[in-house]
Amino acid sequence: KLVLGIETSCDDTAAAVVDETGNVLGEAIHSQTEVHLKTGGIVPPVAQQLHRENIQRIVQEALSTSKVSPSELSAIATTVKPGLALSLGVGLSFSLQLVDQLKKPFIPIHHMEAHALTIRLLNKVEFPFLVLLISGGHCLLALVRGVSDFLLLGKSLDIAPGDMLDKVARRLSLVKHPECSTMSGGKAIEHLAKQGHKLHFDFKPPMQRAKNCDFSFTGLQHVIDKIITQKEKEEGIFLIGRVGKISNPGLCLKIPVCFAGIQKGQILSSAAHIAAAVQHTTACHIAKRTHRAILFCKQRDLLPQSKAVLVVSGGVASNLYIRKALEIVTNATQCTLLCPPPRLCTDNGIMIAWNGIERLRAGLGILYNTEGVRYEPKCPLGVDISKEVGEAA
Ligand code: ATP
Ligand code: FE
């Protein structure tokens, strides 16, 4: 069995060809990150245009590097939910044309299901296992009981952790930092945090009293926003004009002080302390909710009592500090922590092709007639039992 997977749900145009045993035969990806960094966020029509410009080339490249002729494909799998409407639309209409042309079955894919199943391409992970997905657009904890059998234990009630870290990074003007200029907001925070102290600012972890597995990040973001504003006023330390050597006095006044007279290893400033504290608070919050989910599943015999597996994926999963916090939780609960490598944690075509293979093997959701197939910008993953989790505590 061979599946071509196509992904355009957000800001990456990606495609891959994967075989039944998980071999990646061909792969291609076009990232729009640099364009969106300049606008300070994704502008959907811009994303749509870039998907349109690149999809043909990316799919072609995945196919040609795989040396598989299109006629050999068993099926074409494409992300149809959830995601940005304009982005999903490009991938879906391109795929439907291809399906028509090649006369192949079509497998519509749920983006989060694909993230959750990616680990099975690499490791022999049996169902059931627990998955924590933390990225720029998503934040959820789910029990994976089968290829298409999910129990949603908790989700973010507002924004996702990656989105919050991106907003804080933007507020701190980290893109102007020479060491961080090419990094995503979350990665820049992780980098800067190494030079600050996590307890310098005492941010309270969100939802301490809520006895469920839900998450929240806007409160924390607003608290940090206020602190930054206060520091800017009080100390004036965020004004580069007040301190150190200024290589170019004409530079804008609002660059945080830590970037003044930049010297490696010498960047101890409020910005670094804020980065360390926000990373610490985020890690605590995520670890606590995950701990609760593990306990709930074990109590209900939904997970094995020992050697249960926790899979962590999504862009934020590459944060080593957050991973350490999760390791503490898994060690304390006799669980095994597994993370796909970074390139498979973020959006890619491989996970979509692999989800296609999983669905082919399970005989689930394979369409021979694509009439009526639509994309769905919003679509929860599995059966939502988050209320029950809260009531059980
Ligand atoms: P989706 O939610 O659909 O998966 P996405 O593009 O937001 O889409 P990813 O590409 O998986 O998701 O992840 C990007 C997010 O991960 C960004 O918000 C980014 O700031 C965050 N991120 C990346 N590296 C790190 C890191 N080292 N620490 C914390 N956050 C990080
Ligand atoms: Fe994703």
TrEMBL record:
Location in the cell: Mitochondrion
Molecular function via GO: metal ion binding; tRNA N(6)-L-threonylcarbamoyladenine synthase activity
Class of enzymatic activity (EC top level): transferase
Record InterPro entries: ATPase_NBD, Gcp-like_dom, KAE1/TsaD, TsaD
One GO term (biological process): tRNA threonylcarbamoyladenosine modification
Cellular component terms (Gene Ontology): mitochondrion
Cofactor binding, per record: Binds 1 divalent metal cation per subunit.
Cofactor dependence: a divalent metal cation
Keywords: Acyltransferase, Metal-binding, Mitochondrion, Transferase, Transit peptide, tRNA processing
The Gcp-like domain, residue ranges: 23-354
The protein's Enzyme Commission number: 2.3.1.234
Organism superkingdom: Eukaryota
Catalytic activity: L-threonylcarbamoyladenylate + adenosine(37) in tRNA = N(6)-L-threonylcarbamoyladenosine(37) in tRNA + AMP + H(+)
Similarity comment text for this entry: Belongs to the KAE1 / TsaD family.
Function: Required for the formation of a threonylcarbamoyl group on adenosine at position 37 (t(6)A37) in mitochondrial tRNAs that read codons beginning with adenine. Probably involved in the transfer of the threonylcarbamoyl moiety of threonylcarbamoyl-AMP (TC-AMP) to the N6 group of A37. Involved in mitochondrial genome maintenance.
HAMAP family linked to this entry: TsaD
Name the UniProt record assigns to this protein: N(6)-L-threonylcarbamoyladenine synthase
Gene of this entry: OSGEPL1
